[in-house]
Amino acid sequence: MRVGVLTGGGDCPGLNAVIRAVTLKGIGERGWDVVGFRNGWHGPLTGSLRPLSPDDVEPILTRGGTILGSSRTNPYAEGGGTERILEVLAAEHVDALIAIGGEDTLGVAERLCREGVNVVGVPKTIDNDLGATDYTFGFDTAVHIATEAIDRLHTTAESHHRALVVEVMGRHAGWIALHSGIAGGASVILVPERPFSIEQVSGWVQSRFEREYAPIVVVSEGAQPDGGAEVLQTGEKDAFGHVRLGGVGQWLADELARRTGKESRAVVLGHTQRGGTPTAYDRVLATRFGLHAVDAVADGDFGTMTALRGTDIVRVPLAEATAELKTVPAERYAEAEVFFG
Length: 341
Ligand code: F6P
Fold this sequence. Notes:
Layout: E1 2-7, H1 15-28, E2 33-37, H2 42-46, E3 49-52, H3 54-57, H4 81-91, E4 96-101, H5 103-114, E5 119-123, H6 139-160, E6 163-168, H7 175-183, E7 188-190, H8 198-210, E8 216-220, E9 232-237, E10 243-245, H9 248-260, E11 264-268, H10 280-298, E12 304-309, E13 312-317, H11 318-323, H12 330-337
Parallel strand pairs: 1-2, 1-4, 4-5, 5-12, 6-8, 6-11, 7-8
Antiparallel strand pairs: 2-3, 9-10, 12-13
Helix pairs in contact: 1-10, 6-7, 8-9
The chain binds 6-O-phosphono-beta-D-fructofuranose.
């Protein structure tokens, strides 16, 4: 059997751990040939692939990014994508694919599977917004990076009696802001799920100053003021129709300075949250997902995705995982609100 693996969408720490687990178990235990398609769905569309050997993958467990490259290529953006992929897989004698990705990559996997391609999905994204799994790998690392940044910003904010606004990733889901904000003792956490009142945020910031503390505001890039809109970096859309967000942190810092009369600064963590070596938690989760994806392929259980439920790895239908984004529930946000102001 010849099995292909690909990584699509925004990269995240732990992708290489999945590739390593799939390759070592696929070759060592199942006797398969394993190949890696380059740059997400661009690989199977164009026939760009490389064989993977144990020697290729042994050293990559701790390495961030993906040795296969990634892209936001959408085979359905133009006509003929499925036919082209089926032709390439037949020409390369690839029997099945393991697609590692988020909502977009796995949405494509789900549709391709309905159209005759043998695919098993593995969930990844720093945003942790994929349905049907308790966690995605990459999230824990991103939260660690953001928390470390918040810890550092506390001391400089205190020294200068300033408000510091930390903008973190999270287009439609505020998981990174929520977890890093709680872990980092933020004065306010703003998420896309809950439009905020700038008067209320300004009041919380003011009250923190009055108690002789420097406020830290953690804001998801997709958060928006009541009656306002997301702040965009550019209106340009990618192949899946996503605009580029960014700028809400600076907008908030300017507004807070104007309303409180105190100095405010904005820090955008951006892609530092996606780079570098994965945490031990993400290495283990990614490795377990890879091992279980091999079993799903061996069982012919296509159209499924590996998922974390409690401490178990289970299989769920790809359709269930991609049906809707997993956003922060109101009760989880309410837990954090106790610490605001
Ligand atoms: O992968 C998800 C994500 O990290 C989002 O949180 C963020 O909005 C987006 O990717 C950034 O994408 P790009 O790498 O294309 O700038």
